[in-house]
Design goal:
Length: about 220
Amino acid sequence: MNWRACIFLAIFCIPNYQVEAKTYNWRDENGTMHFTDDPTKIPRKKSPPVNTKAHGLEGEIYFECKTKTNHTNILKLDSTRQELIWVKDNDGLMINFPMKTEEYSVRNIKSSFTAEQMLQALFSIKDLDSKYLADLGLMKIMYQTFLAHTERLIRQGVSPEESKRRAQESLRIDITSKQYVELDLISGKIVWTETDLQPKTSRGQEVKTKVRQGKCTKIDGNY
């Protein structure tokens, strides 16, 4: 698994489709129902502190993760921040990309990221090798076009969330769908799940998932 695969799949390999907004709802502590088209606005339930020290997971732990497709990535668990960081990708590039924690327990961590978040992190890396610059240059042009579309719609009075949706629909890209990384901290099993929208059918809009599984082992953190 590498960053180029993640982003190329999201930007350049999305079929011709029309993006449909989803509506999410939740009930607050007072029993009031809320609705939104932005899932990031849904409050997360507070979880009690996790005693990772008892399982030898205190501090920062590095993992070398290999998938069945022979991809090797280095991940770091920051148990204090309860965060999984993608340190080094299959091509050997140091990306040090912190992913968003979706679930965390003494045994398991599930994190997510989008192509947009990955792009923003990559653009901040200095002194990239020439073999990465060409790919990243194409991605940067597409992303800047997406931002220009979004900003134009916002100036017209469209909400930021709806502006992003319309910009993706216009450019026929999908850079905001989540990709998931789930790591079993005890067994070392790791699952990478990519999601993308598929062409509309008589059953409506469908989401396709692609799953890669692998194994992680603890290593010394000399990175």
